[in-house]
Amino acid sequence: MNVHPTAILDPSAKIHSSCKIGPYCTVGPQVELGEDCELISHVVMAGPSRIGARNRFFPFASVGLGPQDLSYQGEATRLEMGNDNVVREFATLNRGTLKGGGLTRIGSHILIMAYAHIAHDCVIGDYALLANAATLGGHVIVEEWAVVGALCPVHQFVRIGAHAYIGGGTTITRDVLPFSKTAAERGTHAYGLNALGLERRGFTRERIRKIHHAYKLLLASKLNTSQALEKLKSEPDRGEDVETLIRFIESSKRGVIK
Fold this sequence. Notes:
By secondary structure, the chain is of the alpha/beta class. It folds into two domains: 2-182, 3 Solenoid (UDP N-Acetylglucosamine Acyltransferase, domain 1), CATH 2.160.10.10; 195-250, Udp N-acetylglucosamine O-acyltransferase, C-terminal domain (Udp N-acetylglucosamine O-acyltransferase, Domain 2), CATH 1.20.1180. The protein is built from four helices and 26 strands. The chain has helices at 195-200, 205-220, 225-234, 239-250; strands at residues 2-3, 8-9, 14-15, 20-21, 26-27, 31-33, 38-39, 44-45, 49-51, 56-57, 62-65, 78-81, 86-87, 92-94, 103-106, 111-112, 117-118, 123-124, 129-130, 135-136, 141-142, 147-148, 153-154, 159-160, 165-166, 181-182. The strands form three sheets. A ten-stranded parallel β-sheet has the order 1-4-7-10-13-16-19-22-25-26, with no helix packed on it. Strands 2-5-8-11-14-17-20-23 form an eight-stranded parallel β-sheet, with no helix packed on it. Strands 3-6-9-12-15-18-21-24 form an eight-stranded parallel β-sheet, with no helix packed on it. Helix 2 (205-220) runs parallel beside helix 4 (239-250). The radius of gyration is 25 Å and the shape is elongated.
């Protein structure tokens, strides 16, 4: 077995000889690691947990520790994981609770990105994807091939259907339909000029006046973006700041927030 000398392995842990255990990793009692797993560094694992083959854990991942549930009193609940999964930095995967069946089950071929959280008694289907800081409450079911976007909190006992896609920043409090695309409304607007910030950076009143005029045309007039740009281009002495604004808008590939 390839084990860094700073790693701490409990004698009762069952670790396949093909595994790689990096610096400062801790593998506790009643952990089973299948063949060709890799713990890159600073990974913490606790049991009872059974991990399949060819799983890769990035630094500071926390796997199989006790659930964040006030009813938990140290019972020997479990976490089980299949094969060929990737668990990125600072992800947390908790064991189950007795009241929830005692098992958190994670399938195979799953990408769990940085800071994602899988709470107690969750079930994650094969080929699912949890993006950065996706947060699953307890007892959540994520079916196969579903995608939970970045910064999405998912309420306890919710089910996310197979092949569903949840856009980033969406709060999920009810079941998500299979095959659906679900996202929160994007009600983001530009509300004018960051005048105070510009003053603090040494912009003169004249520079700020010219930028403010450009923003009035872009945001407060009845002109659309193209019309506002043409109006600005037609004005003499608009200044380099307004030129920068025009170039930014014209080079935008996704459009600008107004």
